[in-house]
Every structure is written in structure tokens, then in C-alpha cells.
Amino acid sequence: MHKYEYDIGIIGGGAAGLTITAGAAQLGARTLLIEKEQLLGGDCLHYGCVPSKTLIKSAHVYHNIKQSQKFGLPQATIGPVHFPDIADRIQRVINTIQVHDSVERFCKLGAQVAFGHPEFIDEHAVRLNGKNHSAKFWVIATGSEPSPPEGEPLTHIDYITNKDIFSLDALPKSMVVLGAGPIAMEMAQAFNRLGTAVTVVQRSAQILSKEDKDMADTVMEVLTQEGIRFYLNATVVEAHQKNGVKNIVIEGSGGQRETLTADTVLLAQGRSPNVRNLGLDHIGLNYSPSGIAVDQRLRTNHPHIFAAGDITGRFQFTHAAGYEGGIVVSNTLFRLPRKADYTWMPWCTYTDPELASLGYNEKRARAAGIDFTVWTEEFSNNDRAQAEGETTGKLKLLLNDKEKPIGVQIAGPRAGDLLGEWVAILSGGVKLSTLAGTVHPYPTLGEINKRVAGSYLSPKIFSNTVKKGLQFFFQLKGPVSDPCSRLEN
């Protein structure tokens, strides 16, 4: 029998790696966690979810102050943004959360934490800082990084990515955002609200291209009204800079060209898995530019080597990474053949309005050849949304040909929070009739969930068949002949 130094080794201290490390150590496994950076927490804590949502909140407050008259308040006077103050606030939030992701915490749980750049020397061992370390199981959770620019033109200018944007020395006067995915849209709106003139260049015909066009257009309309310029179906054909000013020439689908000028360019055209310099070729581990290939149990072609999180190229969300971490713990330590199930994997883009999704949307349902019907509910019909002046957007519920829910999309205020109820409903197999019969506090945005279920059931409950049955069995007198007439005293 082989003797290994550790029961399990984890490469990468982000959401997936930390989940696995905490679980393994607390279960009594001899655990090694290796992280290449000098702090644990991964991209989410330092360059992604945490700093972006902190920035978005600052931008939201600043925007609302400037919109004070919308709420019946006097016009507020507010000075320009001093971005280093926002950057300081972002760092304070990161530092607070860092305590939970500290080396000390994981050491107390019983895990060995090491820093450096590991490289596989065989299927069970890595070389780190000049020493070899072996483990019975290995997990690769090295995450992803911003994809490099596509094409030669952008190599002639300086640009920033999500790794730079939260620590800028000053608020840019102007910014060109290349890409229109979730990160791009969140940052475009946040910086625009803080006072930066923002232009977005997108290669496809819509922003947030994985979403249904009508839902993405709802977000785009708001961002356009707030002052962001959009160029869709456009590609960068030339780029140069002088004295810090960037000039980008874009070409539309019809061949027309236009030059955009900005002092800052944000590159947000996707992410690439961190597979370099791990020695994967040396051990014959299968991977591609999309990520490391895994089966439903998150095993690579070496059954004792797993991969989880962004590195697999499946769902690049922190909550997905945490979920996959649990799958790995089940398979490695409990030896339970647990498979990952992404049927009800939620996600949300934190623009204002937010755009949240669960299961199939119309685009994916059509691609899968699924017959479906769509039920919608507008936020303009929600009393709380009216009270808060947040009436833009709607909820879409997709039912298959058996009238079973297959997906929900919400574009509107606090959509991500509202989607949480649907995660429980659909994951738990709760019937729409049960949702429609629940009592929600009034007035809340959550009533929109109950209301769309009621809209689906109403035609069945108030059908002519039901009315005739009630009249027959209980001798109901039928509707009033002239209901609009007044009763005489």
C-alpha cells in the first residue's frame, strides 16, 4: 500500500478550495492547501464579488442622492467622487471578510496551508518551493483570470481588468468597456453613476448574451437612460494611445467605422482557466482552453484527481464553486458517488435593475427543443415596487408541455433575492398551487412570485366548467345582470 503524506491536497485557495479544505480538515483528513497568492480568498474576495458589490453599493447611494427629487425630497447638492475613498472602503470590506478566509482559521481547523507555485511531478505528488508533497487525492481549484485581448490592435494600448479597477488612483473621466457580460455591465453602470463617461463595445447583437434578449434589453434601456453609450455588433480594428489617451477604432456589422476616445479601457471579454505551469501535461491530465475536463463526480481522467470551481469552465460563480466543493468532499472522503446536478443553479447580474436566472430561459429551452409556455408578471403591478419607484422589469416563468416549471428569470429590483424563493420551490418540487396559496407579507416585492403562480392557476380555477359545477351543486344564482348599476335605497 502506498504511503502518502496527506489524505487530500488542494491547489487553490478560492471558494472551491476553501470549501473542500474546511470540510476535509473538520472530518479528520490530513489536509494540505496550496495557494499561489499571499492571501486566501481567491478572485471573488479580492477582485470579484466582494469588491464589485461594495463599489456598486457606493455608486447606488451616490446615484440616489442625485435623484432625491424623485422621492419628493429637495434637490441635494453633492460634490464629485474622490475614488481613493471608495477604494479604501472596498479594502476595509475585504479585510473584514479576510478574517474568515485567513490562514489562522484554517490552521485551527487542522489544515496545513502553504504558499507558492506547485507543479505535478507525478499523479500523486507536487513539487512546491523545492520540496515534494504527496497526497492520496488531489483537487485542482485554481480558478480563472481575465482573458487576454483578442486580436493584435489592443496590444498597442494600456488597459485594465477586474484586477485593477477597484484600486484606481482616481475616477476616470471616460472609460471604454470592451465586452458586455455581467462584470462589464456591473462596472459600466457603477462608474457611470459615479461620474465617468462610459461607452460599451460588444461584439454580439445584445448585452448579457446568455440571457433572453427582452430581459437583457430591459437592463440596457435603463443603462442607456443613465447615459451609457452602446455599440453592438462592433469589433475593435485599430487602437493606439498618446499621452495616456486611448483611441479605439471600431467597425460595425455594416463596415462603418468610428473612433472612440477614453483615458481608461476596461477589458472584460470573458475569463480563462488557470491551467498554466501546473505540470498537467507531465501527468497526462486532460484539459483544453475551456478548462479541465471532469465527469459528473468532478473527477478528471485520473480518478483520484478532481477539479472544482472556475477551472472546469462550467459555471463561473462563487456559489457554484462552493457547491462543487461539497461534491468533491462527498466523493473523496465519504466515498459516496455523488454527482453534480446543475438543474437549478441560479445566477444574477447585479446591475440596477438586477437580472437573475434559474433553469431554462427561452433561449436555452428553444436550443434544447423543449416546448414551453411563458407566464409573466410586471413589477409595475407590484405595490412595493410602486412605493419605492422601482417599477422597471418583470418576472418570467417557463412551463413545459406538462405544465411543470422549467425556469424563472427576473429582471427588476432585488431580483437575486427574489430568485431565492424559486430555488427552494423548484429544487424541492413544490407545486405552483402551494406557492399561490402561501401568505406573503404586504407590501413586499416577494408578492410577485406568488402572483405569477396565481396568474397561471386563475384560468383553471375560474373556468366555465368550475363555475357551472358550482352553480349545479350549490345552486349559485350566477352573475349580477347589471353589476354597474346602483342599488336603490
Overview of the molecule:
By secondary structure, the chain is of the alpha/beta class. The chain has 14 helices and 23 strands. The strands form six sheets. Strands 1, 2, 3, 4, 5, 6 and 18 form a seven-stranded mixed β-sheet that branches. Strands 19-20-23-22-21 form a five-stranded antiparallel β-sheet, with helices on both faces. A hairpin with a 5-residue loop joins strand 12 and strand 13. The N and C termini lie far apart (98 Å). The model has no long low-confidence stretch (mean pLDDT 96).
Overall structural class, as computed from helix and strand content, comes to alpha/beta
Helix amount, in percent?
A: 25-40%
Q: How far apart, in Å, are the first and last alpha carbons?
A: 98 Å
Note poorly predicted spans: none
Please report the number of helical segments: 14
Can you summarize the main beta sheet? 7 strands, mixed
Task: Please render the helix and strand layout as text.
Blueprint: E1 6-11, H1 15-26, E2 31-35, H2 42-47, H3 49-66, H4 83-98, H5 103-109, E3 112-115, E4 119-122, E5 125-128, E6 131-140, E7 144-146, E8 174-178, H6 182-194, E9 197-201, H7 213-225, E10 229-231, E11 235-242, E12 245-251, E13 257-262, E14 264-267, E15 271-273, E16 287-288, E17 291-292, E18 305-307, H8 318-332, E19 346-349, E20 354-359, H9 362-367, E21 372-378, H10 383-388, E22 394-400, E23 405-412, H11 415-427, H12 432-437, H13 447-461, H14 464-474
